[in-house]
């Protein structure tokens, strides 16, 4: 019996890959907090998790913003674009507020955000290689 191959969106693939990469890393950081260097013990794990969450939210909002801007000049699409731009501003504000009030470590948040971007680039390269192979 053949399995149906599900088509998933590019963004969903990135989110799933990010979860597969970051979940074990975050769990290991939390479990072995005492054995990590002092720089990592002070909020790095929380910052890493926050950076991953903010990175995924950023990716989702950017995708929706681009789709609404490309979709055409409809009143509803304009509202959607404005709402997504406001959501991006809220994400940045939340990240800055967390750093300002020292809820989490800035380097950890940067590391988590960078992981999302790295996975996004890796998934993009994977898609490009698939397209090149289908052209041959």
Distinct helical segment count: 5
Question: What's the pLDDT, averaged over the residues?
Answer: 85
Number-wise, the strands total: 0
Structural class: mainly alpha
| Main sheet overview | none
Give the helix proportion (percent range): over 70%
For the termini, the CA-CA separation is 29 Å
Helix/strand order, N-terminal first:
HHHHH
Which blocks of ≥5 consecutive residues have pLDDT under 50?
Answer: none
Q: Summarize this, please?
A:
The chain is an all-alpha fold and 136 residues long.
Walkthrough of the structure:
This protein is mostly helical. The protein has one domain. It contains five helices and no strands. Helix 1 runs antiparallel to helix 3 and helix 1 (10-31) runs antiparallel to helix 5. It is flat, with a radius of gyration of 18 Å. The chain starts with 9 loop residues before the first helix and ends with a helix.
Core attributes:
136 residues, mainly alpha, 80% helix, flat
Q: How is this fold's topology laid out?
A:
Elements: H1 10-31, H2 38-41, H3 44-70, H4 75-100, H5 106-135
Helix pairs in contact: 1-3, 1-5, 3-4, 3-5
